[in-house]
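Thread: "does anyone have the structure for this chain?"

Original post by V.I.:
We have the sequence but no experimental structure in hand. Need at least a predicted one for the grant figures.
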Amino acid sequence: MTSQAWATLASVATALGTLVLAIATFSAIKSANQSARVAERALLAGLRPVLMPTRREDSTQKVNFGDNKWMELPGGSAAAEIGYDDPDNPKSGTEGVVYLGFPLRNAGSGIAVLHGWIFYPDWHRDVQHAPLEDFQRQNRDLYIPVGDVGFWQGAYRDTAQPGYEEARKVIEAREPWTVELLYGDHEGGQRVISRFTMLPIRDQHAGSPASPSVSPSGSSSASPDLSPGRTPELGWLATASRHWNIDRPDPR
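Reply from O.Q.:
Generated one for you, tokens below.
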């Protein structure tokens, strides 16, 4: 073979070696990327919260609304009250305020942080959730630990606020109402919207007063929130109907 042929053969061999090396490098990078994505998914799954209603045997949550208003939330229930001014404190500023709340259980594997909420004055059944810009921001972060219980609370304080009249009417009439909650993990990601519907618990004995141990909000009849002459009633049963993923693919 001539020197030119040897040079050509060497060039071809070098090219083939470079190609093999490139293929091996590409395979290694692809495998590394797949491993990184698997590790990332595993990490995110370990931080992922999923909120559900509490069980009836779960502990009662006592909630403070920041204006000397307290509400008790027994397991599996929901609470709603129309505020009134305390005769001993005429300037309490709670007259006409619509107070809402229900306890939550975190069935996921990461801490849940509640970001916002939206209220519907009915048994809301749309297949789509509300736009993100329509959610009311929580005044404070509410944290639900992993495998434990916490609560959500919200209030309509301004009578001119959109939705106030509808919320007050449905609470006074003791009709079903719905809340969609926007929440995510403690790092601010993996946001989820969960829809919860509250169904009124009716007294099974028509004409008889409801149990004296439970008020419209689910609080004790001994609670200072009961005005003179006010008859305690049963509250609402909390149910979950749908969850939507916001920052990752939705299962539907």
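V.I.: this helps a lot. The chain has a mean pLDDT of 80.
O.Q.: and DSSP finds two helices and eleven strands in the chain.
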